[in-house]
Amino acid sequence: MSAEITSLTAQLKEREEEVRVKEDQLKEMKNMNAALENQLTEYMDALELQNQSVKRSVESSQRTSAEVAEYEQQMAQTTEYMRKQQLEYQEALQSLQKKVGRAEETEKENLKIHQLNLNLAGELEDYRHQTKTLMADLRAKEEEIASLRETVGTRGQLSSDEVGGERGTRGELDRKVSDYDQLMERVTELQQVRVQLENELSPLRAERANILSENAALREGSNPDKYLQLKTNYNKLSEQCVALQKYLTDESKECEQMRQRLAEEKAINARMEEANHELQVQLEATTDERSLQAIRDRVERYRNERDQLKVAVSQYQERDREQQETIHSIQMALEEATAQNSNQDSTGVWQDQVATLTLHLEESNKRMLRYREERNTARIMHKSLQEQINTLQATVEQLQNSRSYDTYTSGQLDTALLTRLQLTDEGSTERPTTGSPHEDAYSPEEYSEQTAQQGGGGGGEGRGGRRSSKQSFTSTASGSSSHKHDRLSSASNRSFSPSGATAELYTEVTMKDGVTRNLVIERPRHKLSYKSKPEVIVKRKGGKYETGVLAYVGVLDGKEMAGVILDLPTGSNDGAFKDGRYYFRCTPCCGLYCPMGNIYVEANSATI
């Protein structure tokens, strides 16, 4: 009885010691929270001072803008008056220029008409000369024909030579007659062209007479002194307009620079407000005791599974060495039996020995195959655990970075997190080796493919396990499933225990819509009823964390769809389909969406 009391007293002391340690840790966390709150207060004060300076700058910019607007109004009135004067002078000058232009055009037309008349006169003279020449040739041909006819009529019987000559003369005469016909046709064509040119020349002569009369009237009504005065006034007005335009350009540049400075100050103010909001959200998320406790629990569980995995791997290595030795001894015995059989006749005893050795060898091969399967499974489990440990390390680094962001620098909190969440030790990432000559006979990937073809059982996606939810969606950005994302929780599809059973963890899903957003939520326990509307944490583009509600959206492409309702202004989700993406219309909007069949819920979080 006293021993039990002593043990209970010792346990009670241990519990009290643990309670004191927990209280010390809690005090330490409270102190760190107080330090962070002080830093936040200082940051808010500095931000308020900066906001006041920005407001003063905005007010001065507004006053300057009002002065610039008044000055621009005065300049606009002056410009309008100068523009009217310029238009009047331009109209008078243009009227004079038009009259002068018409006179010049008239002179040019007269010169053209005169040149055309000269050309036509030359062509007519050529046509007359050609006609005279043709008529002379025609008369000569007629005389020649008449003489030939007389010669033919006066002659009597002709000799054969004379007949041949006469025939040649007649052929030549026929050719000359055809040439004469062609010349007559040419003369007819030339006469027609002459008539046509005379018809065209008559309206040109009338137009020339009209132009000459108008030109004379313009010369009588023109005033060179008035034209020179108008031109001088126009040049002066043009110089004044150029000077005013240059002055207005300089003033416009100065106004534009002031507007740019005002816009930059507004953008800086907006960025500071956004950074302040993000820091507040990160501070609330990182200082949550439940989140830190969950991370510590997962780290402890991964350490235990890693230790168990190391023990299992060492056992598998020992069994592999034993099996390799057994196989080697069987092979040696089989070789000896074969050598004896070459010198002796076959006997029943030898056949029994060979059959026994063969069965033993087959059993050893089966055991070796089972061992390799278990070894590959252990490697896959080790790889999965290592990925999860790396993921937690990245999460710890992210928490540290979020604490050291901008003015939030807390070395005490970083040291405490490093002390509590140290995950790795030397040799944790090394692969197990057995020293077997068949060590690399099957890689984990080849083994997964081979067992999937043979219908092998067991956990894991390579052997027919439940497909990861990430394969159901298309990521909006490359590398979206990497553990290097800036978020509170990172992704891992599956965890393996040493016994081969699977334990559901948590995952991430990146879906596409108008803006790239990431949904980080936990692994399921039961299917979602859209009436329950579980809350989820959404990290939007720009690093903002927002809380949304998972709700039913409707049927899209034959599937029931659900979305995350965010308290955002409308306008970006208008129900349109553009560039392969849908934009929903709702108030508040559903920023993310996915099929209902892939959505589950656990407590106040959901997963896809």
Name the strands of the widest sheet in spatial order.
3-4-6-7-8-11
Instruction: Classify the oligomer.
Output: single chain
Average pLDDT across residues?
A: 62
Order of helices and strands: HHHHHHHEEEEEEEEEEEEE
Distance between the termini: 57 Å
Gross geometry: elongated
| Count, helices | 7
Radius of gyration, in Å, reads 54 Å
Indicate the proportion of strand residues. Answer: 5-15%
Q: What share of residues is helical?
A: 55-70%
Major sheet description: 6 strands, antiparallel
Total beta strands? 13
The secondary-structure class comes to alpha+beta
Return residue spans where pLDDT drops below 50 for at least 5 consecutive residues.
403-532, 569-575, 583-591, 600-608
